[in-house]
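step: validate -> pass
step: tokenize input -> pass
step: predict -> running
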Amino acid sequence: MTSGTTDTWNQHTRQTLARYDEALLRRVAHKLCKPRNQWPVDEILERLVSALNNAAMIDRRLKELSADCRRILAVIGQSRQTRWPVGALVEMIVALGHEDGLAPIVTLLESGLLLPELFPLGTPPDQDKVSARARFRNFDGWLARSEPMPILLASPLVTKRVAGEDLGITCPQTKAPEAKATVHEADGFDWPVRVAVLWQQLLDAPLRRTQQGDYFKRDYDRLQGDPLLSAAPTDVLAPVPDPGFFTAALATAMGLVREEESELRAGDWPAVWKSTLPNLLLDAWTALSRIISWNPAIGHAPATSPGNPYPSAYLLAMLLLARLPENRWAAPQDIEDWVAARHPFWLGKNTDSLGIVTFLLGIAYSLRLLQATKGDSGWLIRLSPLGRWVMGLTDQLPTIASFKQTLLVQPNLEILAYRQGLTPELMATLSKIGTWKVLGPACTLQLEPHSVYRALEMGESQSSIVQVLEGHGMKAVPTAVLDSLKTWSSKRERLSVYPAGAIFEFASPDEMNDAIARGLPALRLTDRLAIVANESEIEYKHFRLTGTRDYTLPPEKCVDVEADGVTLSVDLARSDLLLETELQRFAEPIEKQGLPGRRYYSLTPGSIAAARQQGVTLSNLEVWFGQRTGLPISAAAFLLMTGPDAPPVELRRQIILHVASEHLADGLQQWPGTREIVKGRVGPTALVVPEEDVPLLTERLKELGVQARFEG
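step: predict -> pass
step: emit ->
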């Protein structure tokens, strides 16, 4: 534990104990410090904090406790996290053989070796709740509540003292495979890479949740059908249900995705992403206990009640494997059967599968916590070197081979990233500068203008991006890629931000040149637009203003659609600066003799095709017509926009039968003798007849006494 962490724990311990009622505080001090005198409250607080930093005193108090108390502290220590819900600890105590799972917890609280979480670790308490009436008076009432679930904290200095405690459990072993059997071990990158992909996607589109905690349908379908997140992981030994939902749950638990009101948004990269892969995988392991919306038995499962048996079940399974002698093997199903027989949540229930096998072969294995080999009846598992370090069986961090040159940058702006050379920091950097396209042993990213702009906005520079690509590249970065990065970076560097300004629109480039030559302190934006940062520097007496515009108001209706449906006439006296930019997306300026003070544009197949490529949709165009013309979109514009998506049209040779009146046409359509011959009606007195049926129609008309004249 670092000194910074020690200071944080000491401060949190002092602030928590300060909220205890004096009588409760003295009872805790009596068991932990055994004072001989009646100390003042302030001195009690300091002595309690000092005692929890005194290894010898902690050892003496631990010897006075029952084995069950020491075991639960040992379990918390091996879990590698200091914060646990009471329910999960009770489940583990019962699974370890103690009938009353709550009694050891009460004893540890009364001894000061466990603390109730009255406010989040690392944050100052709410001083308004430290009044005499709000003092923490007893543990029983607090432990009895179910919403929110009580959370317990254990100092690493305390749990470290019972690291070697016997838990009283034995891992079921199975017959070892042949000596030549292949031992499989994952690289550990599957889930970190997916978490990075999700972070990137959430920058553009957050995930929205309902009040019940589930996702809205569009976001549900998005997680379920995303080609990257929902694809089956490559480095697993058993299918993982709903991998997209697991990725979202894991990213949230790891702190890379933040919950903001009812949305999941991309957060800042936690400090662990600047560390080594083992530390990142340790963080992912501890995050599993905070996942409440997914489990390995059924996949996506929004929480409907406070309890969740899987965090304790995960830890029990790993604790069993930690008791397995080195170089021995266990069957995943035996581990699941052991948990099912002892875990109070499943005790006495007829459950086909708890999902523990899926957790071991799908999640724990892919996080590099386990090794596996093929036995006679299926996969066998044991802790990997990383898993042994995570479970506290060794203090030596496992060495993982590193390959710094792991990127291959191609002239088409694709980046091939070979997973065995990735690091957490490199994954984070690549997620900023490129767009993930393919996941696998060799991942693919695409350098794009918007991805480079994103990286620049997040603090990267052209030189830092090139440095990453060259420092980790197998070959020199192609010239085409360097040129693209330079172009995109220089475009962003030319952006200027004005907190305020006056924008002038001139009728022609010559007028703008003349105004600037006369001393207008303006910066050119386009050939007819210029901006003045300080409006007080403008001498308006030199200008004739033809119009002003308040851009906080709705768009002005200043466009007329001519009879052809594609020619747009702009009233310059009522138009604004945004209109020209809007029109350039889907129309072309044209020269036309018309009314003075008008400018004309035309919708053409080419301009509409370019608009579609830029992302302009039919709904965008319909909204624009409504805002700028006050009318629905014209039929011709609708045709240009939807023509490429329309089904093929048909040209058919047909005969048109013209009759004298509508009544005669109605009769021919209804009379059985001619009803099958008449195929359609193109006017009040015009009927469609197939060419081959003309002789038959002539005979039927004769029966009716109607003369037929054919113009051939």
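step: describe -> Residues 190-390 form one domain.
step: cleanup -> pass
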